[in-house]
Design goal:
The chain is mainly α. 80% of the residues lie in helices and 0% in strands.
């Protein structure tokens, strides 16, 4: 191994040590009594249930929104395509608190949409607000992955399908989706992981109320704030477990050709 490669190995080892150290620090807090408490606590049950229900609904909405949008953008050259592309990527780069603040100002009773459709203001500070915030951030990830999947298809497949008399919708359902299902599924898993771990936008739009808008990330925040470190670490460990399972699923799907 050359000296250049050995030097490049140092930052890799440093990053790996930090990642392993942070995970080990969480796992070191785990013991039988602590694990039992995290499994039997009613607040933890509520947070797990709220996270699963809202994140699954948000991921489904993100798929329904992002997949046809990505398919359209892969087939049609839209006006101001670069501007549109940049705007659609903003949720991935904006700080979550800024995203949540923007959504709050949009949906509250004095916001643009809130004044036109007063019922929309009811979504804030409720589980519906959680779903809106999670869908907003998950859609950007799903859109980016779906566009990548559709863009890898050779245009000849579409043209052949059109020549055989298939409509664009039939081509999507019979040709493109079956050929792209693996990257689309991986994108959905990544979008779900982003939704279930969403905190900043959810905090701004839905608030942090125990047994009402308490997801797992919110449970970490609330219990750290109140000094109940055991429940906070328990919620963090559940999030760690979910994240690892999702990453393994993505690796398995990607390598199972």
């Amino acid at each position: 191994m050359s000296w250049a490669l050995r030097l490049a190995l140092l930052p890799l080892l440093l990053l790996l040590l930090v990642v392993l150290g942070s995970i080990s620090a969480l796992l070191s807090q785990l013991n039988g009594e602590f694990l039992w408490q995290s499994l039997t606590d009613k607040e933890m049950h509520f947070a797990i249930g709220m996270s699963l229900v809202t994140s699954l609904l948000s991921t489904l909405l993100a798929i329904l929104i992002a997949t046809p949008s990505a398919w359209l953008m892969s087939q049609v050259r839209l006006p101001f395509a670069r501007v549109i592309d940049t705007l659609l990527d903003l949720p991935m780069v904006l700080p979550p608190l800024v995203t949540g603040l923007g959504l709050l100002l949009l949906f509250n009773s004095q916001g643009i949409l809130g004044r036109w459709v007063p019922l929309l203001s009811e979504v804030i500070f409720s589980p519906l607000g959680i779903i809106v915030a999670q869908t907003y951030v998950a859609s950007a990830i799903m859109l980016r992955n779906a566009r990548g999947a559709f863009s890898t298809l050779h245009p000849g497949f579409r043209q052949t399908a059109f020549n055989l008399g298939l409509t664009p919708l039939q081509t999507l359902l019979k040709i493109e989706l079956p050929m792209c299902w693996k990257p689309l599924l991986c994108g959905a898993i990544l979008a779900w992981s982003r939704a279930i771990g969403e905190f900043g936008a959810t905090l701004m739009l839905a608030g942090a109320t125990r047994f009402k808008t308490e997801t797992l990330p919110m449970a970490v925040y609330l219990n750290i704030s109140s000094g109940d470190f055991e429940l906070a670490i328990g919620a963090a460990l559940w999030l760690l477990l979910v994240g690892l399972l999702m990453l393994f699923a993505v690796r398995f799907i990607g390598n199972n050709d």
